[in-house]
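Example (one chain per record):
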Amino acid sequence: MKNTYYFIAIGGIGMSGLAKYLLEAGEDVQGSDIKRNRNIEELEKLGAKIHIGHDESNLPENCIVIASTAIRESNPELKKARKLGLEILHRSDMLAKISKGLSEEKKKYFLGFSGTHGKTTTSGLAAYVLQKANLSPSFVVGGIVPEFGINSNAGKGNHFVAELDESDGTIVKYAPEISIINNLEIDHLDFYEDGLQAILNTFKLYLSNLSENATVIINNDNEGNKKLIEQNPNVKFTTFGLENADYMAKNIKLESDTTFEVYYKGEFLISIKTQMAGVHNVYNTLAVIASLHKSEVDLEVVKPHLYTFTGMGRRLQKTAEFSNITIFDDYAHHPTEIKATLAALKSRTNNRVIAVFQPHRYTRLKGLWDNFLKAFKDADMVYVTDVYAASEDEIVGINGDAFAKDLISYSPCEYLKGSIQDVAGQLIPKLKPTDTVVGLGAGTITTLGKDLEALKNEVKA
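Predicted structure:
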């Protein structure tokens, strides 16, 4: 018998992925959002009934409601669901339910990718190579896999791959057979007010919920991860890294392509060639290799597809090119991510690298202010925009203008006021042929390439 699932704010990347999975699994899906987007159009093609605008009349009287942390109690659909006594699941509850198998479906072998950075790329890469190797994985990841144009899939194979979000503590709800922890750093200060130790406490609880037979694969080179290992002596960790680890990357060459060799417990395992730039993507690829090896997947079968993977949507994704100027879009919104992205770009070009930084959340900018100041050394010029609030209230004194005034002591920079379209208009006359431009942030900065290209075309016309 079909269940009816109703998603409040169905158009987001995480919610739409879950909705698509349920549709493909044969369930009835309905939902609402404040405006249409590509994700909603794709879901409607698959048979979802979606309302634009939140209204209590949209809600069926017999359904399971899915809502994320961002949905406030004042939402009329959520209020009606509570009044009717309907089952209400957090987004993470729905993902946990899927990971355990829906209805009479056999439970799949669950690979869960987590950590402050890299979880979208690693989960996406694992899903991609398994799919390309005709192993038909099921997956729900936090970004679009470019070649497939999707972020979820209800496959027929034995593997289920998912990105596990630590931002709101809900990671404790999952219990994968293979758990990958990429790295742990201070972040999400709106939730983890006590900093890194609060994140480590959450991961300690997560680890305690895993089965005795679960495998925990962890980046041994990350300082936060080292603390997690120290604080959990009873957990048998499998490590990966560049030295003193079970899985090690050696003979790394960062050229037009990235190549390296993987060793497991000192023995050569496989040679790797990837299009993804930067040392951070060596770690990402190594994490996936370790997880697949522990899952007993034939690495030689997936090896050719490691090279054809070009990265996830919004991860150094080329969005425009004109007048010999190249525009990239990158989701980097944490100092470590920004450093890695700019270093990767700098390693592949001798031309000017122009960073356009849209700070994401007032709490993150305030809490990591000094770290952000030191994150732009590989940019030749930084343009700082207004903060993308992401539902947060403004914090007095924490804004793009104030940040740019401090950043000037570390990197050449300028504050550009207004919407991203306004920023594009101010940026166009400042660009030179051969410049490489990258928009950095998790907000509306993603439209920068499109806005710049549109303005350039207007000038030509």
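Caption: Residues 108-308 form a domain with the UDP-N-acetylmuramoyl-L-alanine:D-glutamate ligase fold (CATH 3.40.1190.10).
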